[in-house]
Amino acid sequence: MTVSANLGFPRIGVRRELKNSLEAYWKGDTSKADLLAAARQLRARHWKLQKEAGIDIIPSGDFSLYDHVLDMAFTLGAIPERFANLDKSDPLDVYFACARGTDTAPAMEMTKWFDTNYHYIVPEFTRGQSFALSSSRVIDEFREAQSIGIKTRPVLIGPVTFLSLGKAKDDFEPVELLEAILPVYAEILSTLKANGADCVQIDDPVLACDLGESQKVALKRAYDVLAPIAPKIMLTSYFGALGDNLELAANLPVEGLHVDLVRAPDQLEPVLEALVSGTKSLSLGLIDGRNIWRADLENKFAIVRRAWDLLGPDRLQIAPSCSLLHSPIDLEYEVALDPELRSWLAFAKQKLDEVQALTVAIQRGEGAAREAFSASKQALASRRSCPKTSNRAVRNRIAAVDQHALARKHPYAERAVIQQDHFGLPAFPTTTIGSYPQTKDIRQARAAFKRGDINEETYLTFLRVRTQECVAIQQQIGLDVLVHGEFERNDMVEYFGEQLEGFAFTKNGWVQSYGSRCVKPPVIYGDVSRPNPMTVEWSAYAQSLTEKPMKGMLTGPVTILQWSFARDDQPRAETCRQIALAIRDEVLDLERAGIGMIQIDEPALREGLPLRKVEWEDYLAWAVDCFRLSASGVEDRTQIHTHMCYAEFNDIMDAIAALDADVISIETSRSDMELLEAFGTFNYPNAIGPGVWDIHSPRVPSSADMVALLQKALETMPADRLWINPDCGLKTRDWPETKAALGQLISAAEKLRATRL
């Protein structure tokens, strides 16, 4: 019989219970026992929720206290040598040290999980590295579920995906370590089998990527070794089509294959053709695990019927496209959302209901799921006919955009001279990325204003005082280019979405970004426009407090698109162009208000890159054009900055250069300036600020550490185009460490000027 399955469930809790428990533990307010108890409660709640939804195959091992890739590294004993001196009697502290760093050991590098906004901890590998089973977490959680009467399917990251996501510290391919890690995987899988696991889910999403020959050989070798000793294996791939890896995947010795039919619906027929003559099960990834729009159940059911006709009922599973990690948990809590818009949406809990509706319909006939199918049809009809989703004026503006709107008046080399004459900055100018600490009193004041406990003038007065203090602190520290601190902003995307037409917001639509960091993505449901200026008043006020340059701070169109739940009823490029025009309006208003430096952050540019290189050119063309559309209307003396972080840039340097930002700042401290090498090899033509302080770690680096990083940067970049800044915004830090670290940053700049000039 066809069954329903889930690949993974959000970890954080509908009220962000995991975040609160983690941060309380890190502060020392609660004990390790408290944290682990809270984690057990969340796991039990989520397993029961899935069982009550009628899901036949429920995952375990998908929960994590920080990151599932770090969990796998910890399970395999792949702990970097710099953490070797930590007290091994408390593995949890070692685990968090790897993620967050210590006073003596920088945190492990962090980057994006494929093309999502989820950040994973990058495994580190050395030639000849050994591995050993160091954590029984996945086995323990399988038993834990059994103890409350729920039989689960344990989830593991596949060995080839795990190695492919890591970074070799020596000159070798990480997949060369396959033979070293296979015995540990074998031990885990055989132990699960001995404990009663009938099937395991092994996630190998690299199968949706361009694979090298060594990776293909490694995949075959891995499953040849593991399949005979493991429970039945459901091999899962997602975020794209198997494409030229289909034959490889279809012939691996596994019980079943999961495919993403949301991101890659066209792969259905090739997959069915590859499997029809065999015995493998097919898991149909039909419900979007990465967006929140209600599914067209009639359309999805036609896919199920097609697969049923070819493979029969006993070889099918119906599932989300990927783990529901990327979805908010429960729409039922969104009581304040517009009822019509709410009817168009489905969060993780509702997605399980959609999976189950399709399963019931194929098991017992569509009549058995009539209510769900009817609601789906009504929601789709409502959305298609709703006038709030379309704005003729916006579409006319987009149609009128030409190439002249995408280019600055003169090349960077000419602009740089004009800008230096205008600003008169010293060598190695210092700045920050944008935000300053969002302290408890700021969060409390924002919440009080939203509740109506304080009036608008009281709230604005409070924010003006905080802005004054922030500007004064920056001047006292000695930064060359200041920012206003962003105390009025809740989130770098949500803040703008709240002021743009075509956006809506949830109250509890939280998703995990990394560790305890959660974001609440806006919902783009209609055409986007900017009714009024969004940031001009605060930037102009801050500039009035100082004679030093004050950067206006904006989020770029690609990042707003990527970090929102974007509409799926038109091409993403079209939505991005609409956002770009809105940001362009803001840029021009900032310039007219006397703001001479404007930063348009695009940390998600690399994140949005398709997994297959054949699709890169089209994406990069419209993504770059959207940035240029947002930035290119200003005069030559106005300096455009952008910021990118936690991504590999080597393979898109042409596109980054094509942005033509006057200054780009990037994250480089965790990678020890390795990310900057791509800019040097490419001979990047504009100015650059490589980050010298990892703001996602509580560690305050010394000025000597920063100087050492900058000396490495100077091996790559000319001194006259080098800026000095942290890796990212300082929103999550506290003031004492912020002041201390920025003091070290200024000291590093002074040392560099003294030795270089």
Automatic annotation (TrEMBL):
Give the enzyme class: transferase
Q: Which residues bind L-homocysteine?
A: 433-435, 486, 601
What UniProt keywords apply to this chain's record, in alphabetical order? Answer: Amino-acid biosynthesis, Metal-binding, Methionine biosynthesis, Methyltransferase, Repeat, Transferase, Zinc
Enzyme Commission number(s): 2.1.1.14
Keyword match Ribosomal protein? no
Give me the reactions it catalyses: 5-methyltetrahydropteroyltri-L-glutamate + L-homocysteine = tetrahydropteroyltri-L-glutamate + L-methionine
Instruction: Give the residues the record marks as binding Zn(2+) 1.
Output: 643, 645, 667, 728
Q: In which pathway does it act?
A: Amino-acid biosynthesis; L-methionine biosynthesis via de novo pathway; L-methionine from L-homocysteine (MetE route): step 1/1
Cofactor(s) listed in the protein's UniProt record: Zn(2+)
The Cobalamin-independent methionine synthase MetE C-terminal/archaeal domain extends over 428-750
Listed GO biological process terms: L-methionine biosynthetic process; methylation
Binding-site positions, Zn(2+): 643, 645, 667, 728
What positions does the entry give for L-methionine binding?
Answer: 433-435, 486, 601
The Cobalamin-independent methionine synthase MetE N-terminal domain sits at 4-306
Cofactor info, note text: Binds 1 zinc ion per subunit. Binds 2 Zn(2+) ions per subunit.
- One MF annotation (Gene Ontology) recorded for this entry: zinc ion binding
Described by its record, this protein's role is as follows: Catalyzes the transfer of a methyl group from 5-methyltetrahydrofolate to homocysteine resulting in methionine formation.
Name the family the entry cites. Answer: Belongs to the vitamin-B12 independent methionine synthase family.
Name it.
Answer: 5-methyltetrahydropteroyltriglutamate--homocysteine methyltransferase
Gene behind the chain: metE
